[in-house]
Amino acid sequence: MRTKPEMMGQLRPAFSELNISEGFEFDTELVTNEIKEDCKSLLLSNEQLTTLMKDMDGAIRNGLGKDTNPSSIVKCYVTYVQDLPNGTERGKFLALDLGGTNFRVLLIELGENNYFHMDSEIFKVPAHIQTGKGSELFDHIAKCLAEFIKKHNLDNKKALPLGFTFSFPLRQVGLTKGYLNSWTKGFNCSGVVDEDVVRLLKEAIKRRKDLNLRLTAVLNDATGTLMSCAHKTRFSKNCFVGLIIGTGCNACYVEKVENAELFDGDKTKPHVIVNTEWGAFGDDGKLDAVRTKYDREIDEDSLNPGRQRFEKMISGMYMGEIVRLAIVDLANQNKLFEGRLSEQMKTKGAFGTSFVSDIEGDKANYKETLKVLSEMGINDPSLVDCANVRYICECVSRRSAHLVSAGLAALLNKMDEKSVTIGVDGSVYRFHPYFHKLMVEKTKQLTKSDIKFDLMLSEDGSGRGAALVAAVAVRDELPSMTNGFSAK
């Protein structure tokens, strides 16, 4: 699969016949009118997106308010992260990054003259553990931590600082204390919801008796991405947003302390990072006007029906399934493949989101499309079928990018900073050939004209960021070395 940077410059305008052309021109001559008509429900106008922006802005403000937070869909959890890396951090720091079926353990070393070195290893979370007992999940994590430390010959006599990225909705009450609000992304471990995940990890570490770690921070992946990009840009003070578009979708941003009414930390510092948890936007019905029958089916068949509806219209965990449901629906109406479907295409979850990226990355002759359809058991499709399938993919991914753009524009307009760097991580943003371009164009349309922004890809952002938060936490035990945000 090609990465985003390799695909830059190969973009072509699209959807001109639908009067929503914005600099893209994919060849849609072969796409049938009935497919175009059926896909209209997947295309969002600027008027619809502007309405969603207003609703998102209201939901964020409710999440920040002390009186309105309990009933708010978008919770806007305070992270208690108030300082960026400033280059004075020194030493070795561990990070644990849990956010999906795989998790990572990282070791970073910071030294003089901006010295930076990182080692990391990926571990799997078996399916039975994802939906088993919470104690089994944390015991598995502790086991993998022990393996990593042994493999890298780390000194276990002195407690190593550990930053913990926990990429699920987390209500924090301190830098080292956070309660799981709800599981997402296919996880459903018992005994964890409404519990302090730092305590659960500490207990698992203690049970092993061979680990000497000091948990200095818990954070989510969006916060880690923001911190990572702030470090990557030589301690830039205008990295105000962290954005995740991968298995899940979420954003964090820098907020004024006085606006974060639930914050009970250090109010001598003017700003704090807020984890929006905007994946839940629309769970109160605000998205109903733009949700399709495919979105409703995905939601109803999920492990958390009625929750994370915004995320389910965007993220990599669901995008491929939306495309598959549309293909099955249209084939059943004899509008694709002469009504013939394979068992693979009928199988829930069989059409991965990576297939969407592969199909849209086709340069000519539908080579990748034919390959994907063959893998799905569809042999000898017509060129019209290939064009129709690609068009469905384009509509689904374009909608995803535009929904993210609406949320991002709402944050940029609310902060009203004139120059902002947005750290972005996640497989959808990284691997989809046009997602970056789609987002930039739409966000510009929806954002105040005097606001300038840049999207920065953050490699290993969530894990690296966790180690950096741990490093900053240790650094700030010396009060003379703080370095806050420069936001107004």
Characterization of this structure:
The structure is a single chain. The protein is 38% helix and 18% strand. The protein has a six-stranded mixed sheet, sandwiched between helices. With 488 residues, it is of the alpha/beta class. The chain is built from 17 helices and 13 strands. α14 packs across α16. The N terminus is likely disordered. InterPro entries: ATPase_NBD, Hexokinase, Hexokinase_BS, Hexokinase_C, Hexokinase_N.
Structure, briefly:
Helix content is 38%, strand content 18%. The protein has 488 residues and is an alpha/beta fold.
Low-confidence stretches: 1-25
Quaternary status: single chain
Largest sheet, strands/sense/barrel: 6 strands, mixed
Mean pLDDT: 89
Strands side by side in the biggest sheet: 1-11-10-9-12-13
Q: How many helical stretches? A: 17
Helicity, as a percent range: 25-40%
Given the C-alpha coordinates, what overall shape results?
Answer: globular
End-to-end gap: 41 Å
Binned strand content = 15-25%
Could you spell the SSE succession in H and E letters?
Answer: HHHEEEEHHEEEHEHEEEHHHHHHHEHHEH
* Helix/strand structural class: alpha/beta
Any idea what the radius of gyration is? 23 Å
Give the total of beta strands: 13
